[in-house]
């Protein structure tokens, strides 16, 4: 499928799929969306539990933006993160080179670490730093079968308009099973059908203020 690099409203890059009229991140700002949906309402919320070690699963590793911002959080906070990124269709090396996240995040000193995230082998756990490990799994989301393994899930799949099969009770049951008790799942979606699918498998679901350009988003807790 054809993919095109474009600049979002906050100056950060993303990838556009013209055949689907779909983006990897919000056109209103890739970095702004990642920080709001996954860091502020996900990671920071979980850290209120006064823990300094956690395991994160990302559904849709994509450009590596969410993983990189999470990695940067370990540099400013006393936390250690084990990160798993699931991705069915990895992006190409020339696309990685076109991404401007390092400069937009003013993280030039960690440029080699961002590149390392993309260059490491799949299906193996790698130490990016003393406080951040990364395992990239090339898999379809329907094949996820982890049990009580994660504290936090970043659910960043493509939208239900193009891939409705990724927003079903069956998928959220897998997410519920993969989370530890008290674990959190965050997603940019605010669709009623998504909220009901989450609730049907046992999640407690909150509607929260969305990132720029979006009124609401969802956060689900395994209780």
Question: What would a concise description of this structure say?
Answer:
With 223 residues, the protein is of the alpha/beta class. The protein has helices at 30-47, 65-76, 93-98, 101-104, 111-119, 169-178, 192-200, and strands at 4-7, 13-17, 22-23, 53-59, 80-87, 125-129, 132-138, 150-155, 179-187, 203-209, 216-222.
Strand content: 25-35%
- In which order are the strands of the major sheet placed? 6-7-5-4-8-9-11-10
- Percent helix, as a range, is 25-40%
- What composes the largest sheet? 8 strands, mixed
Mean pLDDT: 97
Query: Which H/E pattern describes the elements?
Result: EEEHEHEHHHEEEHEHEE
Question: What would you call the structural class?
Answer: alpha/beta
Nearest-angstrom radius of gyration? 16 Å
Number of strands: 11
Overall shape: it is globular
């Amino acid at each position: 499928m054809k993919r095109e690099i474009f600049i979002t409203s906050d100056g950060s890059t993303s990838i556009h799929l013209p055949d689907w009229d779909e983006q990897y991140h919000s056109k209103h700002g890739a970095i702004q969306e990642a920080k709001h949906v996954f860091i502020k309402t996900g990671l920071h919320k979980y850290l209120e539990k006064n823990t300094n070690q956690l395991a994160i699963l990302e559904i849709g590793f994509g450009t590596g933006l969410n993983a990189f911002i999470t990695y940067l959080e370990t540099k400013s906070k006393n936390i250690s993160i084990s990160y798993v990124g699931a991705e069915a269709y990895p992006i190409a090396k020339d696309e990685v080179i076109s991404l401007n996240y390092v400069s937009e995040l003013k993280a030039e000193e960690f440029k080699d670490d961002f590149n390392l995230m993309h260059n490491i082998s799949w299906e193996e756990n790698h130490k990016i730093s003393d406080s951040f490990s990364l395992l990239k799994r090339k898999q379809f989301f329907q094949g996820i079968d982890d049990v009580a393994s994660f504290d936090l899930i970043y659910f960043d799949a493509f939208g239900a308009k193009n891939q409705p099969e990724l927003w079903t009770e069956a998928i959220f049951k897998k997410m519920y099973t993969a989370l530890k008790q008290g674990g959190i799942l965050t997603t940019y979606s605010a669709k009623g059908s998504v909220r009901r699918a989450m609730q049907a498998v046992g999640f407690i679901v909150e509607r929260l203020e969305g990132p720029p350009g979006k009124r609401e988003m969802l956060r689900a807790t395994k209780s």
